[in-house]
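User: I've been going back and forth on whether these two constructs are worth ordering. Before I decide, could you fold them both?

Assistant: Sure. I'll take them in the order you sent them. The first construct and its structure tokens:
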Amino acid sequence: MDTDLQLRTIQALDGLPPLHIFNCQTVDQAKHWIEIREAFVWLKQAFKDYFSGKPSNHSQLSPRQQEFYGLLRDFYLTWYQCIQWGWNDIKQSVAEQGLDIESYASTPGEALIRLLEDSASALMEPAFTGYHRWTPSQTRDLAKRDREIGCLLSGENISDVEKLKIKKYQRDIKVARIPYEKYFNFYENSLRVCERAKKGSRLKEALVTHKKTRAQLDAVIQSSVHKRHRLKGYEWRNGEKKYLGKYGGI
């Protein structure tokens, strides 16, 4: 990554999430913007440290938070490596769908910045929808089922009962992703194209590294919603955030 892209990445992170796009009408929406803004300040610091070659400057954070922001940074950078090697295949796939890739990004570097912007918008989205509900128990359940379905799909001779189980999981995960889906379509599709292409060892290595980083990041996120942390679920209703009554569960 050249110096110009490094600078543009830091500048992009410095403006996330964009306040001019998210016109906060309630106190809860404003608080949510501040929380997400703080997260991107720490992510920006993680990128700055990486680009400078200096030790991470996250002494104010807990070890778990430091690990999270380091892995989150690596998640974006390893994806960037994937699309760098697979960019021509991605462009061709987009063109075959009758679309213009430049409507999203004209280069892998622009795609990286766009994904960072879309990630910020995805995190802000629940506060601006009519209704959104999140619970730690649902997050844990989907993660557990994801592992189970992965084992089923990797095996042979799937039974009818298991097929129904897979369909139900796919339906539930699709519903859970609805608020965020539009922000990560390019990310998901780009990885699928790179998986199919697999031209050259560099792209294969980049995919393996990205998947490993994503799995490590998922593990940290899952650890953060463990029952021992006694998190409360919450609901967003027309810009108002209400916490649910039970710690650690629904």
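The second construct, handled the same way:
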Amino acid sequence: MIDNRATGWKVPLLFCAGIIAVSALSVFLRGIKPGVEVAPVPDDLLAKARTIVIDLEATPQGRMWKERIYRASGGFSSRQSKDDSMIQVAESAIEFKAFDAACAATTLVYDNQRRDAIFFKMSQAVHDDCENLPWAVFASKGLEDNALRDTLNKDLAQQWDKCKK
């Protein structure tokens, strides 16, 4: 005699367990990336950067930049289109030395490579300006590419040493 009770649950359960195991393994393996040693930012430069407060509401110029960022990020458009608009705002802010607005706009760019390019551009804009060099720390911290961050941090350390002299 064949017992037909509860025979339909084993196969789907095993299938789900297999899918969960494969998904967990892929997430685990994707999270393992070859580590790149990142040079540290000089402590005194980092301390100076920590004193900076980004408050776009504090000044009329800041409110204008906030409005531009809000307009660039709103609406029903693709991420590519929003990234294009946000990059235009960030590049314009860098050009006008509104680094607080440039940081705020750049963090809203979805594409990691394009965001890294803007942060790197910002760091180059302040490279020779000792007063604004702490903004490059924000750029460094925003980079996703560890090799680029290492290069930038080494350059920051050299430039900061020149600024202290």
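Notes on the second construct follow. The longest helix spans residues 10-31. Helices lie at 10-31, 43-50, 60-73, 79-95, 99-106, 112-125, 134-142, 146-164.
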